[in-house]
Amino acid sequence: MRTPPLARSLDLHALLLHSLLACALIASGQSVLAQDRAEKAVPGRMPNVVIFLADDAGWGDYSQSGNTMVATPNIDSIAKSGVSFDRFFVCPVCAPTRAEFLTGRYHPRGGVSGVSTGFERLDLEERTLADSFKAAGYATGCFGKWHNGSQWPFHPMARGFDTYFGHTSGHWGEYVNAPLEDEGVMVRTEGYIADVCTDRALSFIDEHRESPFLCYVPFTTPHSPWSVPDEDWQRFKDKQLTQVATDPKKEKADETRCVLAMMENQDRNVGRVLKRLEEHGLRENTIVLYFSDNGPNSARWTGGMKGQKGTTDEGGIRSVCYLSWPAGLPAGRTVKQISGAIDLLPTLTALAGIKRVGDRPLDGRDLTPLIHDEAAAWEDRTLFTTWAGKISARTQQYRLDDQGRLFDMVNDPGQQIAVNDAHLDIAEELKRQVAEWRSSILNGNGSPRKNQNASMDPRPFPVGYREFPVTMLPARDGVPVGNIRRSSPAPNCSYFVNWTSLEDRMIWNISVATTGTYEVSVDYTCPLEDAGATVELAMGERRLEGTVKEGWDPPLYDNQDTLPRPHGESSMKEFRTLILGKIRLDQGSGELIFRATRIRGKTVMDVRRLTLTLQPE
Fold first, then answer.
1. What's the longest Cα–Cα distance across the chain?
2. What pLDDT score does 594 carry?
3. Which of 41, 119, 85, 601 is nearest to 347 (CA)?
4. How many CB atoms lie within 10 A of CB 536?
């Protein structure tokens, strides 16, 4: 497979020279070998693939990593029955990691530069892991947090998945009896969100047990809000913390306890899936992968590493990564070479013996040589991490942090003492590589980049595809004007509030794919005494008027959370759907404007989302 464009050996005392021809021959041979193993593992049957992705779990949140305060036996069993990647790196935050896992390419190449307001969307020219497996004849399903685009064709069902259930945004504000999307339709569920999404994954496995399947389970936990079933919380609410954060002053004990309770719940759900595979006789020939999308979302034990979620230091981007396939992989092996989310696509397709869809060059490498042979020839390389304009570079031995300080990660895994003076040649070479990477990848390939002063991605939100006629436009994808504001600074699970003036409006920048008639509904709340406002939805010369006929003013949920929500996250409530009517929209781009033409009381309504449904001709 193609090595990353800037990969070079940085240990100048042990520099190995490899010709391009030799690398090509090795890659070709490994591809043939992987396909041969896939065919021989279970004759006549391609391996199934199950992928678990944790949300905001740090490397230290597992008993396999040495955390004695938590028990994660089912997740640990994946490591024990397969391969552990000892130094595995993801991104500092959620959406970028998911893009790198799905494409095998650094996330800025695919236009992903943020986690909300459109910046999380993966460019449509990118082809995904699911595209490859679907093309190879696999049934494909995703159950949980997507976070790489909501509207078709950014939607997971347009990116290679046959079915989808969960939430397409970043963090979700409701973990108990949550409203979730079921293939384009919002449904009210019953139970804890991780349990509910796992239930759907189990049904998918049951349905497709007779043929190869790819089942992707991106959990919503242990991302906040701090909410976990009481049976799990009761085991942890008074637990003494015997292992603490690298900076103990920053740790909040109850948040750590809640995270550990969420991890045990998640582990139980992983166990449910593994058990179902066993019951169907599928475990032997199923590739099971487990990893997380970034470092811990609070200060807690990480084995002494520096950093947490949102940072480009080791603790912010190192994740566990376990890969098991009883029929095709060794058990109990540890790969010590550095690896990352960009490596998962080429590795999984190689293991399954399928062809990758798409011709864009990969940044990731096929890891199967290291998996099958501890002594395999392997060229050292540099892995790059970026977030908020900062870049960190990692080689097998060294990390250059975002301030240009060099650390020997073998002898100083906590990044305590910079060694620039002792290894000036290495520090300078890494700085040169970072500058080249910044120029060629952050600024060089033409995809939209996040302007730190911009509140919204300039790419319009698509509406109106016949193959997926329902388009949801949540508040996070709109722009409030006037008195209107979001219910919290974090847009992902916010709603619009304080709509009090005829000058106020909400604007969505959209691109209509199909000229036609659209039914419009709004998910709203409204104080009973304020009912009766008249509202208008307009795009160009097209207009739709509707009336907020009935008040609906439910209280904020007061029984959802185990602990108070972090600053910036909305408290949620039950929204009601109001059908506004139908509007004719013409193909093309423009602003969809929602405003009031008459206000009866103090406010118009709070708005969580608009939904536009293209009507049959």
1. 78
2. 98
3. 85
4. 16
Superfamily, domain 20-441: Alkaline Phosphatase, subunit A (3.40.720.10)
- Whole-prediction pTM: 0.93
Say if CB 202 and CB 141 are below 8 A apart.
no
* CA nearest to 38, candidates 289, 287, 395, 233: 287
pLDDT by residue (tens digit) across 146-165?
999 999 999 999 999 999 99
Report which residue type is found at 45: R
Residue 192 per-residue DSSP state:
B
């952050």: which residue's tokens?
442
- Tell which phi-psi region holds residue 139, choosing left (phi > 0), alpha (psi between -120 and 50) or beta: beta
DSSP letter, residue 552: B
Which pair of tokens denotes residue 426? Answer: 């290495």
Strands 286-292 and 318-319, sheet pairing: unpaired
Please state the separation of Cα 79 from the chain's center in Å: 22
Instruction: Give the Cα separation of 48 and 532 in Å (integer).
Output: 55
Sequence letter at residue 250: K
Indicate the SS3 state at residue 562. Answer: coil
443 backbone dihedrals φ, ψ, rounded to 5°: -120, 5
Domain boundaries, the chain: 20-441, 461-614
Give the span between the Cα atoms of 609 and 523, in whole angstroms: 5
Residue pLDDT, tens place only, 288-343: 999 999 999 999 999 999 999 999 999 999 999 999 999 999 999 999 999 999 99
Residue type, position 589, single letter? S
> Which class in CATH covers the domain with range 461-614?
mainly beta
- What would the two tokens of residue 507 be? 């604007």
Residue type at 41 in one-letter notation: A
Closest CA to 520 of 582, 474, 562: 582
Distance, in Å, from the CA atom of 4 to the CA atom of 491, rounded to the nearest integer, reads 34
**Does residue 381 sit in helix, strand or coil?**
coil
Instruction: Look at residues 107, 179, 136, 167 and name the one whose alpha carbon lies nearest to residue 48.
Output: 136
